Amino acid sequence: MRGPIPSLDNTFRSLLADLLPYRTRWQAWRSRLALGLLKLANVPVQKKLLRLQAEGPCDWFAESIQRTYLECRESLAFFNAYQVHLYTDEQKTLFERAAQVLASVQKMVITDDTFARSCRTYRVAEPECDNLVEPPAAGYGVLLVNGQMLVLPHTLPASADKLQQWSLISKQRATYDTATLSLGEASALARQDWYELLHAARACHEFSEALNVLRSADFILCLDMDQALSLSNRFFDKAIQIVVDPVSTYLIFEHAAVDGQHAISMGEALAANCDQAPHTWIEFLSPTDNSNMHLWTTRVVHPSAAQLDKAHQYLEQVSSEFVRKRHWFPELDAQFFASITQQVNGAVSVDNIIQLAMALAFFRTNGRVPSVYEPVSLAHLPPRRLDFISPLSTAAVDVIQSLDKGDPVQVREQLLAAIASHRARIRQSKKGEGALAHLLALASAEFPDNKQRCVRIQRRRRRLMSRLSHSIGFLAHRDMMVSNGGTSPYLESFSTIVHQPDMLGVGYLIGARGLALDLQLHGACKEAIEPGLFIHHFTQSLQDLVQVLLPGVNQGTAAYQPAAATHTASAVHHPLLTKGGATAHARMPLAQQETSL
Question: Among this protein's residues, is 255 annotated catalytic?
Fold first, then answer.
């Protein structure tokens, strides 16, 4: 079923409400003028959208959200990929876990159609806006190890011993030619640079053959021998990459192809399959002679000297500007949040408290109120996938600015109003009436047969609207993306994306033994926000909000001691870089929580 198309009046009324927290009095008329002009320009487009939606099979809301991610011109590895970490059995060796994961993946690409189609999908670099391609089933997967790739037919069972043997052989054959790039490095470049390399190298037989093997594969399994991981063990155009390293197992998702809710479902399914003894599946596979298994090198991209230098500089720059940090709050478990919601008679959800605490932490760290975006799942309105809302209302901004000095009774009233507004925005979005999704759908429907022109015009309009109204420009800047990874006994953490430079991305997951935050910072945001300080302020902000919500409650039971309740893992595995250190892994049973994901 398709969701409704909201009226222009409702959409622009919602947009004006989103702008209210970020504008001063003298900016009000400029914001109204800018939105009025935009609404007037979209009157004929709304009629066109209604007609297209009625005539064709395409849902322009789904199309526009996907296009938003396909427009990403920066590195997919840093700006458009996110991770779901599975729980790791520390009793098993690297190769035992890899064999278990491989057997589970081989089973799922045959028995789980959604997982299989997502694993096959790959992204093709194009000018302005990329495309997604879903090839037919090929009957094989690819193992990436030590900069080499090994084709694995689905009928080939691989034991831990066999994987270790292949790893040793690949290490012996591995070469590092400084005049070449691996397909992993090339696919991690800015999209225009990768597009140019693709077209320049298409006449090279070695390049085309290796690229087609990776693109056509039913899945990609990356086996990392250590945490200082190599780009040669990745191919970022693929919608899903499964990674096994010495301390963890995780999946890397490309956001244009797979949204958060489906990623979590797939991660849970893979982890559940790994928990079921995979040897039962291997016994049903036909044995294959693997004595002549062929290893391919991934270093098949031969750029010019100028292109090579530019590629190395770009990868060095984006990696140096990227910081990722994971932090655990053992005391902030499902019971803690459940006790709060019970004491306010269910008028507050976990998302409300955590996201407002994050905005307050940003304010206390950076000295200003952030513009915040939160993804909302629309899986119940297929083929729509998700929408975005701005969770901060005027009441929320009032709480942020007056919490430290305002009247406690008044601040509590503002806090309850902020929570009610946040929940109302989620409900509106869940009904398919989100303002941002509607704007994106209008933009896509205006030029349905010309993606490139659509992208160019959208960018010009954003610049024009930002000049007309500072508050629109501020809201469009997107300081923070905050995503809830839900709860599951099979998952350890969930990250979000920072889809433009200078953003802070926060993914969080709540379990019976604690809250996990996964922070990603880029560019100027990295300079302005020190992760440790942000986490400290988040801890204090959460405690302050709880005290406002539950005045007079014994803090020994209703709150927590920040110093004793936190644990930080600074060495979290980014798709490209790992900066040393150890990450704590514990199997944590998680309870169900309300989530907007």
Answer: yes
